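task queued by scheduler; priority normal; single chain, no ligands, no partner chains; default sampling; output format set to structure tokens
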Amino acid sequence: MAAVTLGAGAGLAQASEANHARTAATAEVTLSAAQARTFLANPAVKAELSAKEAQSVRAVADGKASKAQTRGAASSAVKALYNLLKRHGGKLYDDAVKAAKGGWGKFRSYMNGLAWYHPVRIAWVAAGGEVQYALWSYINSLF
């Protein structure tokens, strides 16, 4: 009886996490001015942004962004972080995807466990919680 109960609980937990991911993916993700400034200060991240994307992030950093620019900046941050993760590729990317498949907690732990000086870790910290969660949701939507 306990095994059946535990098995059902695990299924419900996974369903709850999947539902939470879908809700977060449809919610509006934002990037604060401080996060945008820190994000732009990282040359590795800046290299992943197109001119238009960098302009949106700069507008947020300066506190002069329209609603469209604010949404675009957050989306650009997720894209830049994902591209940076892929650029460092190989085992890092594969391990990140594996951790993402294991759930938000495992993914967050994996990313936080990277060396403090690693460009992906620096960008991860600069992005802030909402963008981090959106990145996890994005990776899960791919696989």
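post-processing summary
- The CA atoms of residues 78 and 140 lie 13 Å apart.
- Confidence is low (pLDDT under 50) at residues 1-26.
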